[in-house]
Amino acid sequence: MPDDPGRAGVVIPIRSFVAAKARLAEHLPETRRAELACELATRVVAAAAGLDVIVVTGAPEVQEWAAGLGVDLVDDPGQGLDGAADAGRTRAATLGCVRAIVAHGDLPYAESLVPLARDVSRPVVALVPCHRDDGTNVCSIPVDASFRFSYGPGSFRRHAAEARRLGLGLRVVRRADLAFDVDVPADLERLTSPAVP
Fold this sequence. Notes:
single chain; about 200 residues; alpha/beta; 7-stranded mixed β-sheet; 7 strands
């Protein structure tokens, strides 16, 4: 049976727009940081075209934004990024998806997340490390895998180790459009320069 990208769901955990990007506070006022966070998240939703999109949040402004886009909404269980990713995976399963693609909402150059769905229900974890080779910008897993998310500094290596622990295949995807995220002032400088990643 051919791979069907429609059988995957993209999970986008977003804590808040208003309180987003605190590490950029010395470089951008709060209003602009909120606008930037919304712009970046909108880009990620666009990159998920053709797939189910599930936004996990507890923030009213994010809920309003997601409702306006017509995407599925899940309440953030309040257990950090790991808990939000897990809640999104659970929702993807209830929607009939066999694969959950957890993507950060701050990928300004994201083009398409569809290739991360190519493994469908196969026992394979696909990871996109950040441009620092430290974090995990995108994590694509079968929804029925007992995969434990472990976000934060060094998450790429922890997620790779978790795939091995479970005996799952591991596919590392290195794509410039998905590897670049906006976390620190140096990223902001790169974002506002005319050069692409």
